[in-house]
Amino acid sequence: MAGLDDVFGDLFASVDAVVLFSPSGSYYEQVMAVDDLDIVVVGTENDVGAETFVELPLEFADITDRIRFGLEGALEQGVVEDGDDLACATSVFSDEIDTVSRVRADAETQTGIYDLFVKSRADPEVVKAVLEVAIELGKKGQKGKPVGALFVVGDAGKVMNKSRPLSYNPFEKSHVHVGDPIVNVMLKEFSRLDGAFIISDAGKIVSAYRYLEPSAEGIDIPKGLGARHMSGAAITRDTNSISIVLSESDGLVRAFKAGELILEVDPEAY
């Protein structure tokens, strides 16, 4: 009769590395005792003192997001290589590691999400909340119709100085923050109107309906992208911000930092 090793052995056979997500010290030592095994630790802190470590900016509750982000970071840092077969061990049902998935590292599927978080000075939870609003807008649109939107996150004071109002700012006297479900509904509703949302590092919505006025000289964006993407890219060169842009024409979500495209993702595939 076949044993469990016969049934699940292929999960571990011939892997190029084991990726441990936030392991306990005892679990890490147990895996380290295995001969000829490359180990990568991924987490918000390197509590086990691992030699090879990839930092997570926040704890991703969703296991797919956690593994996706960790592997993009590992590829970005060069600690795993394109095509590597990896055994990813993480916790799902408890505080201890209890789940193992076999994943192949694929550089062609890199979205740039690791760069989006690592290169932003804003609170990672704020970046995540804004990205999720843009993703949901890309999936559902505004009343079933495609919509474009531009969110500028971080360095809000300087961004405000390099922009002007297009209309009354509905957030002028409020103290609302992204991430609140009610506020997210407001963002989706206001997205149908022109202009950018300006959001602080801490997530406060500073303004809507802003016309960005940075110089576009020297900004190089992919062909086919319009004024919304150009201004979104340019403002990140002139300020310490990131911009997250939803395209009305192709439905993709893109992010810019330091004037360069760092993320491109299809909301339907996210």
TrEMBL record:
Domain of life according to the entry: Archaea
Molecular function (Gene Ontology), one example: ATP binding
E.C. no: 2.7.7.85
The entry's keywords: ATP-binding, Manganese, Nucleotide-binding, Nucleotidyltransferase, Transferase
Top EC class, one word: transferase
Domain DAC: from-to ranges: 110-267
Catalytic activity: 2 ATP = 3',3'-c-di-AMP + 2 diphosphate
Entry cofactors: Mn(2+)
InterPro entries for this protein: DAC_DacZ, DacZ_N, Diadenylate_Cyclase_DacZ, DisA, DNA_integrity_DisA_N_sf, DNA_integrity_scan_DisA_N
Pfam families the record matches: DAC (PF02457), DACZ_N (PF19294)
Family to which the UniProt record says this protein belongs: Belongs to the adenylate cyclase family. DacZ subfamily.
Cited function: Diadenylate cyclase that catalyzes the condensation of 2 ATP molecules into cyclic di-AMP (c-di-AMP). c-di-AMP is a second messenger for intracellular signal transduction involved in the control of important regulatory processes such as osmoregulation.
Name of protein: Diadenylate cyclase
Natural source organism: Natrinema altunense (strain JCM 12890 / CGMCC 1.3731 / AJ2)
